Amino acid sequence: MKITLVKKIKLDGSLCKKCEEVQQKLDATGQISLIDEVLIADERDPLSPGMEIASLFNVERAPFFLVEREGKAPEIHTIYFKFVKEVLNQKTLEEDELKEILNDNPDLDFL
Amino acid sequence: MSENLLSTVDLDQTLSAQTPQEILSFALEQFDNIAISFSGAEDVVLVDMAYKIAPEKVQVFSLDTGRLHSETYRYIEKVREHYNIDIDVVFPESEAVNKLVREKGLFSFYKDDHKECCSIRKIGPLRRKLLTVDAWITGQRRDQSPGTRAAIPVIQDDKAFARPGESLTKFNPLANWSSEQVWAYIRSNNVPYNELHDRGFVSIGCEPCTRPTGPTQHEREGRWWWEEATLKECGLHDVNIKK
Known about the structure:
The complex is a heterodimer. By secondary structure, chain A is of the alpha+beta class. Chain A has a single domain, classed as 3-Layer(aba) Sandwich (Glutaredoxin). Chain A has 4 helices and 4 strands, in the order βαβαββαα. Chain A has a 4-stranded mixed beta sheet. The longest helix of chain A has 13 residues, at 17-29. The mean pLDDT of chain A is 92. Chain B is 35% helix and 9% strand. Chain B has a single domain, classed as Rossmann fold. Chain B contains 8 helices and 6 strands. Chain B is an alpha/beta fold. The A-B interface holds A 8, 10-11, 16-19, 41, 43-47, 51-52, 54-55, 58-63, 78-79, 82, 85-86, 94-95, 98-99, 101-111 and B 9, 37, 39, 63, 96, 114-116, 118-120, 122-124, 126-127, 138, 140, 144-145, 147-149, 152, 159-161, 164-165, 203, 205, 223-224, 232-238, 240-243.
């Protein structure tokens, strides 16, 4: 299995906020050691490796994880906690999961 | 459910040209285990439409955050009786609510922001409910919030709430309707509505986080008015992705 993390550099040259948060979590938990490659999707450069992968897999959010397993179709994970649970088989806190869902889907608070 | 019916992007293009009733018919035909999310407000039109299309298939749930107006509780009951349907009222985990209130009090959302409270009182129970269905239907519309709902599709692959290794389909049949169209439907079909609407409430949520709006205000201004709107920043801007 090969895991690639794609992070986004915004038009102003800074890293996107969620990319920073996910990077911090990966570092703090040691999960970063399970990531094989980190690519940058630079919004200022459509040919940057991360932008090309985003285009190839039709991904509209960052950060995201590309998971490639032998003999299987590549998987894209845009939700960090689901990636941690379903790919890394590690535990997550429910409160963190719920906050991530709402942050990624701000329209849900209208329900 | 046919496997992967859901090239949802292609379907969205087709369904976007259809009426809410046609979209609902499609959804109810495709899925047996499908539920309508009813907030106790004008999304009642979905209940009315679904009831007229396939009354035997109508499954409705409401999220009771514990902070709704008493008028909304009465209204949910009125809808239950009017259509003679079951409404599954789902609640937040008491332990999570206890922890929030113990640590931050009953009105922490005025000091922090509403997301922590919403995640516990709304998103938690919503997730528990959605783990039991294959598809769900919401009354979300593009005109409700230019910031967060401007790009709502009619059908989407809901990765956030899907069971591990499975898919969950979300339908937003009213995505392309305006508030005026919704209210024209309510009036012309004599659909029961929440009495708060007659008192200037356009968008109705929890009591502490909802207020009436004036004639020139957007309905979004009736919710979490003390917070500044923030823009999502994690979308990858299409214009920059090489096609």
